[in-house]
Design brief:
11 helices, mainly alpha, two-stranded antiparallel ribbon, single chain, globular
Length: 241
Amino acid sequence: MNRRPSRGAVLGLLLCLGCASAELRSDYDPLEQVNRKIFWFNLKAQKYALDPIAKVWHVLPDPAERSVARFFRNLAFPIDFINNALQGKPERAGTATGRFLVNSTVGLGGLFDPAQAWGLEPVPEDFGQTLGLWGLAPGPYLMLPLWGPANVRESCGYVGDYFGSLQPFLLPGAVSNALYGTLVVNERALDLEASEKRRAAAIDYYVFVRDAYYQLRLSQIHDGRDVEPAQAEDLYDVDYE
């Protein structure tokens, strides 16, 4: 049974697109007190709920976990294609199509990545990056419950990516949710050791995550190119543990 977009998702996207604010500093965090509480809650939920499952999953050898990650990366083809096209990057949109066709066939549904060996490098893009490239300001930093760091613009991007993904519309709800749960557990399993090192090295882990998130998103929006300090006041972002 296919799932239709909810009215809430449509309304959320419209509200997001209507709330673009002026350019703000990358450390603009007027909700810091609330964000810190949500951050603490997320860490506890991760420690006591997600990590035990991820540690069991981590008995899989790394190559197997990375194959699972590639499988889900392959499913993101519609998002990559649409957003490369929206950003005026037709060659990258073509590359995304080529990668999907090769990896879905020769790569056994995306478990392997022969496309990269053939010169078709990954071209990941999402709707948050598209909005940033179009000049939509980030708005205040947000820490989303059970999700992680974001801002108003990136929250809009999540809604856009929902509409760009075929998975929720082509698969029954239970199957789609099970796939998403597997994705979350697998990503956490791959990140267990690295996240422990990051947390141990950070003086204020909340600030570290906020600043790293900003730097990551800024780099992704500008395709890894160096940007001027004035541009660096446009976003926020790093991987959330």
